[in-house]
Amino acid sequence: MGVEGIGARVVRKEDKRFITGKGRYVDDIKLVGMTHAHFIRSPHAHAKVKKIDSSAALKMPGVVAVLTGQQLVDDKVGNLICGWAITSKDGSPMKMGAWPAMAPETVRFVGQAVAVVIADSKNLARDAAEAVVVDYEELPAVADVHAAIKSGAPQLHPEAPGNQVYDWVIGDEGATDAAFAKAANVVKLDVTNNRLAPNAMEPRAAIADYDAAEEHFTLYTTSQNPHVARLVLSAFYNIAPEHKLRVIAPDVGGGFGSKIFIYPEEMVALWASKKVGRPVKWTGDRTEAFLTDAHGRDHVTHAEMAFDANNKITGLKVKTYANFGAYMSLFSSSVPTYLYATLLSGQYNIPAIHAEVIGVYTNTTPVDAYRGAGRPEASYLIERLMETAARQLKVDPAALRRTNFITQFPHQTPVIMAYDTGDFNASLDAAMKAIDYAGFAARKAQAKSQGKLRGIGVSCYIEACGIAPSKAVGSLGAGVGLWESAEVRVNPVGTIEILTGSHSHGQGHETTFCQLVADRLGVPISQVSIVHGDTDKVQFGMGTYGSRSAAVGLTAILKAMEKMESKAKKIAAHALEASEADIVIENGEFKVTGTDKAIAFPMVALAAYTAHNLPDGMEPGLKESAFYDPSNFTFPAGTYICELEVDPGTGKTSFVNFVAADDFGRLINPMIVEGQVHGGLVQGIGQALLEHAIYDANGQPVTASFMDYAMPRADDVPSFNLSHTTTLCPGNPLGIKGCGEAGAIGASAAVINAITDAIGKNNLEMPATPDRVWRTIHAA
Amino acid sequence: MYQTTYHRASSVDEAASLFGKSSDAKFLAGGQTLLPVMKQRLASPSDVIDLGKIKELQGVELSGDTLTIKAATTYYDIMTNADVKKAIPAIAYLTSVLGDPAVRYRGTIGGSIANNDPAADFPAALLALGATVKTNKRSIAADDFFKGLFTTALEDGEIITAVSFPVPAKAGYEKMRHPASRFALTGVFVAQTKSGDVRVAATGASQSGVMRVPAIEAALKANWSPSAIDNVSISASGLLADIHGTAEYRANLVKVMAQRAVAAAG
């Protein structure tokens, strides 16, 4: 692997600027003549916008303009789109309620923008916003899915009767019913998957700059996928044509999915910059982040699992209500369908599965993909079911899982996914050994003697990553392909620039992607630069989400590298008067195998650009590109086991140990992988113990600041014990599965399984706050 | 934040004088409440008078059986002060679980009690220890100082200069942290005076702010031990209820935290 190659724990190149405060985020950028936008947002969950009076604001110092939703309509700016078409079981398309970037007539969640003030400074814009008088007529609102589907409930969209987005099914209902009819045991469970606010460290921001002479727009934005942003902004919103729009996502400070989507604010900034003839900047504050960044999860599910007399699973029935909030965000429709129900087989042989998912509008912030996106909901459901089943069937939870593991690959599940490889016993074994599962009973007894309730919880997760084969997702309704592109530019002096459509928002691409180059050429990573996040530099790309940047993005780089190396070998062979087949690349040199003849890589590069002595007919230069479309999803999997104690006096949970045994395929940089797992586990624990985005019955957010929304802190989580059990992914040449979401997918169930084991009661919703645990312990 | 005029007072008299000249001034101590509220535009004082650099408001003195903490002393300075640790270690412990390091470096005892947040830690210590609040005009017993949510006996423009604590025979504080804010979801301070009296105060629990807990005081006076509280029943009536804790849960916490505070006090 070399000191900087694949598998090396290379310190992150990008951290020098991040930890010395030299990162360059959107808010750090200042343009000449720049104005500042402040959005006027609805304080009501549901209301008619009767009148907006901006006359007083327009007279205030430094105010450039006050723009409203009606002006968007007048300028024929398009409504926000949802990019994945889902078809209901009756064959009808999903019901899309119109979502204008600023509401001209009706607001449907607290925080929805109705107007924007553009002024010379942020404070002046804010002052003027207070002088804009918006006359609302309040309407009844509904925040809860069950309330929203009741007859007589307040209706959000005329396009969606009964507030229903879709009623979608997957699997074989007849075969599933037959399995339940013959079942020896049936296990039933109701679970709620709590709504979460993403809370990236960097709030969303945008700067739009319209050049009237060139009729050209530049948009700096906090995006995980700047090319997708450009595509959507140009193709659907009638603001800027694609060839006249440059989207730049500089350093991005976290996203967890929330920065995939195209939001009203960047649309309005683009449109407004042309209207006012000056650059327009908007930086959200934390309150705006709570109110407008797409939330995650929010499922209410009833599930039943059928077992035969040998404790083998024979069938699974699931009915889920998914709360989408007030509007369908960019990829929201796919999250509780193709990213959720297709993973309901978990790690288990389940011959028959049937799932129904009912999408529901409510007067809340839109919900979309959040770290794991559908897969945490599936994994949590299945792993809570397995634990419940073990308790009901009175068998060891680990043993019950082992009885039902898939052990032959490839394995076609009844819900679309074909698992390519894995070794679920290996990760379960590794985790059980790491936590001394066999010794738990003695430790539990010891804890009991000290007045503590000790529990252990297992979670065996699987996810589908490396999103995704374009043809497959296209057949399921996706509006885009999910390949990735790369370009390798070798400079005349032999330094290398890798252009990629992946875009780091904290993952460390500037290090890991260089490690591939170092691995193949034997050059130091200091000789390699990663270029990303700018649509003028990188031709196209699909961005970073779904743990796809290594499995798909890095593979695209590999394909481009192979093309570049092939040409470079021809040049080297020509220079060394050898056969191309005899050229090998070692330690930055092209060598004739079995001889001491060699030419350094920079000399090959120089030869390509001087073009004085190239093979006949060869074009000058050394630059190659590739598009890579994966053949399948990848399937990271693993086992998490959590041991904890509950204080019966307070209901407070304290971790004793948390072990993770993951199979991510090949690791490029184990240090970065560990960081990803740590972060994911903390988010999973956060969901299990602390985090909950709550609305009252009238749609007012209760948790719109860190005073009420509990984010995990360092002392809320244990020191993790990580290990890897590796099976290489056969679907890509590097054998990579992906690691970005696993922790968030698998951790929650381990925690809740452990707490319920500790307190001896199975029903406990997330977040398991001390109050909730205490009340559960002491409930009659 | 709206426009405001910032003044850095060099003495208590100057601060009082500045206050008198202003139409709508606020005193600034550590700024842990006032500044966030101003940033959110929920407060818009015409003038902000900073007390933080006034020398006479800084420091800790131990004199006989009285520990005096000047009003603008930060939590960090209290937490690390040798006299505090020696005379009333429960106060040093209370400051160590108050907020986070950033809050402890800025926040002050005077700011905390003047604000009288119903979930703040220090009001419980003052009330349980029977402290005296010294101002630029008078001395106020803790029992008379706290007047309900965010309300105190302070008059307009009155400046807290110090808090004097009688050194107790035993004292302890235990707190269930609010999972988001790290204020007290419920915290209980127990103290046994050198004359044998017992005072117990709970914060974060009552809808009326910090409160004495007479039932626990009576039980502990009879028998200073955690088990003495086993059969005490705390009513949930009048207690706070929110997404982080029901009133019943807080009632339970009053009892459990009191037991643990007694155990910590020894």
UniProtKB/TrEMBL annotation, chain A:
<dbReference type="InterPro" id="IPR036856">
    <property type="entry name" value="Ald_Oxase/Xan_DH_a/b_sf"/>
</dbReference>
<protein>
    <submittedName>
        <fullName>Xanthine dehydrogenase molybdenum binding subunit apoprotein</fullName>
    </submittedName>
</protein>
<keyword id="KW-0560">Oxidoreductase</keyword>
<feature type="domain" description="Aldehyde oxidase/xanthine dehydrogenase a/b hammerhead">
    <location>
        <begin position="20"/>
        <end position="140"/>
    </location>
</feature>
<keyword id="KW-0500">Molybdenum</keyword>
<dbReference type="InterPro" id="IPR037165">
    <property type="entry name" value="AldOxase/xan_DH_Mopterin-bd_sf"/>
</dbReference>
<dbReference type="Pfam" id="PF01315">
    <property type="entry name" value="Ald_Xan_dh_C"/>
</dbReference>
<dbReference type="Pfam" id="PF20256">
    <property type="entry name" value="MoCoBD_2"/>
</dbReference>
<dbReference type="InterPro" id="IPR016208">
    <property type="entry name" value="Ald_Oxase/xanthine_DH-like"/>
</dbReference>
<dbReference type="InterPro" id="IPR000674">
    <property type="entry name" value="Ald_Oxase/Xan_DH_a/b"/>
</dbReference>
<dbReference type="GO" id="GO:0016491">
    <property type="term" value="F:oxidoreductase activity"/>
</dbReference>
<dbReference type="GO" id="GO:0005506">
    <property type="term" value="F:iron ion binding"/>
</dbReference>
<dbReference type="Pfam" id="PF02738">
    <property type="entry name" value="MoCoBD_1"/>
</dbReference>
<dbReference type="InterPro" id="IPR046867">
    <property type="entry name" value="AldOxase/xan_DH_MoCoBD2"/>
</dbReference>
<dbReference type="InterPro" id="IPR008274">
    <property type="entry name" value="AldOxase/xan_DH_MoCoBD1"/>
</dbReference>
TrEMBL record, chain B:
<keyword id="KW-0560">Oxidoreductase</keyword>
<dbReference type="InterPro" id="IPR016169">
    <property type="entry name" value="FAD-bd_PCMH_sub2"/>
</dbReference>
<dbReference type="InterPro" id="IPR051312">
    <property type="entry name" value="Diverse_Substr_Oxidored"/>
</dbReference>
<dbReference type="GO" id="GO:0016491">
    <property type="term" value="F:oxidoreductase activity"/>
</dbReference>
<dbReference type="InterPro" id="IPR036318">
    <property type="entry name" value="FAD-bd_PCMH-like_sf"/>
</dbReference>
<dbReference type="Pfam" id="PF00941">
    <property type="entry name" value="FAD_binding_5"/>
</dbReference>
<keyword id="KW-0274">FAD</keyword>
<keyword id="KW-0285">Flavoprotein</keyword>
<dbReference type="InterPro" id="IPR002346">
    <property type="entry name" value="Mopterin_DH_FAD-bd"/>
</dbReference>
<dbReference type="InterPro" id="IPR036683">
    <property type="entry name" value="CO_DH_flav_C_dom_sf"/>
</dbReference>
<dbReference type="InterPro" id="IPR016167">
    <property type="entry name" value="FAD-bd_PCMH_sub1"/>
</dbReference>
<dbReference type="InterPro" id="IPR005107">
    <property type="entry name" value="CO_DH_flav_C"/>
</dbReference>
<protein>
    <submittedName>
        <fullName>Carbon-monoxide dehydrogenase medium subunit</fullName>
    </submittedName>
</protein>
<dbReference type="GO" id="GO:0071949">
    <property type="term" value="F:FAD binding"/>
</dbReference>
<dbReference type="InterPro" id="IPR016166">
    <property type="entry name" value="FAD-bd_PCMH"/>
</dbReference>
<feature type="domain" description="FAD-binding PCMH-type">
    <location>
        <begin position="1"/>
        <end position="170"/>
    </location>
</feature>
